[in-house]
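Quick question, first post here. What does this chain look like in 3D?
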Amino acid sequence: MSDYIFPPAPQASVAVRGRGERYAVSRIFCVGRNYAAHAREMGSDPDREPPFFFCKPASALFPSGGTVAYPPGTRNFHYEMELVIALGAPVFKAGAEEAKAALWGYAAGLDMTRRDLQNEAKATGRPWDFGKAFEQSAVISELVPAAGIGHPMAGAIMLSVNGEERQRGDLSDMIWNSAEIVANLSQYYHLGPGDLIYTGTPEGVGPVKPGDQLQGLIEGVAALTLTIGEPE
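> Answer (accepted):
Ran it through. Tokens below.
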């Protein structure tokens, strides 16, 4: 057994509906601009362009039901409601059917974003890390195994802030569906169990402030809640 100078970080994991075991997480991938209306509200006009990805660290995971501090360095903290994929088998350079067989489960998620920092990075051609890849920015519900719900291709995806609806779309509006996303990403990575993929958000993203209560729902999958706390 190896000795370490400092104790390793705890294993990131997600609760699974109806099971005592947890899903151990190694990597978090996120799809950018996977709903056409949201892409347009962010200044793009996609025509089924190939999906592109960014990453968040495993330390970004945060379970539904808690309070996240308003993060440092931003004055424009945004929500993005998303379907999350959890993989359950190795997949590399796969087609859509093989990729679909690797889809183990699904969850509701929030890709929390320091929008002002992301926009600054876009304007200067720099990476999005400061805007996207920070602690507690990947909020997630419990995982729901596909064996119990199938592979959701349609159904409402919505988010409310303080009881007021802000986002509403349908999973059928995704430019690239779950299997296609995994197939594309597998051309560049050896994927497998422990990989989560946030699949993009519909239109209606916007800012939150300390004290706000967020309620999200993906029909037939899961719900989540989140409270925005005071700045650290």
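The mean pLDDT is 94.
The chain is about 15% helix and 35% strand.
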